[in-house]
């Protein structure tokens, strides 16, 4: 809704931080479970799985954009550059420092994720080598605090330049690291997670308040980089704690068939929606952008999922166990990530 420019959804751009926390939690849960079972991490397997999950659909989308963008936006003269920057997962720093890509602005968050995938597994192994397993959450939480301070530092040294802080991996890593810390507790200190889950009702009471606090921020508001992101990340933690045992009202709501299906389509919707919405919002009022843009994005996402994505997922999972790690539980709608 943020990309649609719908009224009262100015702060919806902070919703991506929910995903960052969830991503850090799921990826780290899988990595820690693998390390528990074998005493090591298979980097090649990890990066191959990530590549097959993300790259094929991305390359098809970028190819379609490269062919169609000159017809839709004939005034653009940097289409090739935008495609290359996006394909190399450099959109986060490209936008922050060079304003590229533009009509593929949404590629920044995928680039942030890719940088996380590159940096975190070897760093996790290093932390495990020098930290007792049950204390792993401590240095990870320290990293969360340090990265928050780093974001504040850049925000002030750059004269509160929103773009130069909002889009970069190094200034947006707090959410993913917070999810990593929660995963370390879930896997290595399950009794702690049980205690947190037992108190979930107190955490869930905060959820109705947080959206209103987040919505209060507008695009370009430096306060969103200080506290809006933090509120969104804490909301994500509360949701994960509430659903990790796959019981309770919130879990049942997130497991509704429509939401499960939407989760499967989410990557494709993410890829296709922004250029569609950007074109429509330049010519139509926001209700029409929603009514036309979102169904069209979902249709293209279905086409992507049932062709290239499902084929790539089959390659990814070929010959591998389909067993899910006991502590890497989450609603089914999230497991395709």
Automatic annotation (TrEMBL):
Domain Acyltransferase, first and last residues per copy: 13-303
GO molecular function, one term: acyltransferase activity, transferring groups other than amino-acyl groups
Positions of transmembrane segments: 12-32, 52-73, 115-131, 136-153, 173-190, 202-219, 225-244, 256-274, 286-308
The entry's keywords: Acyltransferase, Membrane, Transferase, Transmembrane, Transmembrane helix
InterPro entries: Acyl_transf_3_dom, Acyltransferase_3
GO-annotated biological processes: lipopolysaccharide biosynthetic process
Matches recorded under Pfam families: Acyl_transf_3
Entry coiled-coil feature ranges: none
One term under GO cellular component: membrane
PANTHER family: ACETYLTRANSFERASE, ACYL_TRANSF_3 DOMAIN-CONTAINING PROTEIN
Protein name (database record): Acyltransferase
Biological source species: Lampropedia aestuarii
Lineage, highest ranks first: Bacteria, Pseudomonadati, Pseudomonadota, Betaproteobacteria, Burkholderiales
């Amino acid at each position: 809704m943020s990309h649609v420019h719908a009224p009262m959804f100015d702060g919806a751009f902070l919703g991506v931080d929910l995903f960052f926390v969830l991503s850090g939690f799921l990826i780290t849960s899988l990595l820690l479970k693998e390390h528990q079972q074998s005493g090591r991490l298979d980097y090649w397997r990890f990066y191959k799985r990530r590549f097959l999950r993300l790259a094929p659909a991305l390359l098809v989308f970028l190819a379609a954009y490269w062919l169609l963008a000159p017809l839709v936006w004939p005034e653009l003269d940097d289409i090739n550059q935008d495609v290359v920057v996006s394909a190399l997962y450099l959109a986060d720093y490209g936008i922050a420092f060079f304003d590229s890509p533009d009509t593929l602005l949404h590629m920044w968050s995928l680039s942030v994720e890719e940088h996380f995938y590159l940096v975190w597994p070897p760093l996790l192994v290093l932390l495990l080598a020098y930290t007792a397993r049950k204390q792993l959450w401590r240095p990870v939480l320290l990293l969360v605090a340090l990265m928050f301070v780093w974001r504040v530092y850049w925000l002030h040294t750059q004269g509160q330049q929103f773009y130069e802080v909002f889009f970069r991996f190094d200034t947006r890593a707090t959410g993913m690291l917070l999810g990593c810390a929660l995963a370390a507790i879930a896997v290595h200190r399950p009794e702690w997670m049980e205690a947190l889950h037992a108190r979930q009702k107190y955490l869930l009471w905060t959820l109705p308040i947080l959206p209103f606090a987040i919505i209060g921020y507008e695009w370009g508001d430096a306060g969103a980089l200080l506290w809006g992101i933090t509120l969104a990340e804490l909301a994500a933690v509360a949701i994960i704690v509430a659903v990790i045992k796959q019981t309770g009202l919130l879990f049942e709501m997130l497991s509704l068939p429509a939401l499960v299906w939407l989760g499967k389509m989410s990557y494709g919707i993410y890829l296709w929606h922004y250029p569609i919405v950007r074109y429509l919002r330049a010519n139509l009022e926001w209700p029409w952008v929603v009514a036309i843009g979102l169904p069209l994005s979902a249709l293209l996402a279905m086409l992507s999922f049932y062709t290239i994505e499902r084929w790539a997922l089959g390659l990814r999972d070929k010959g591998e166990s389909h067993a899910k790690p006991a502590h890497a539980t989450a609603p089914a709608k999230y497991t395709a990530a």
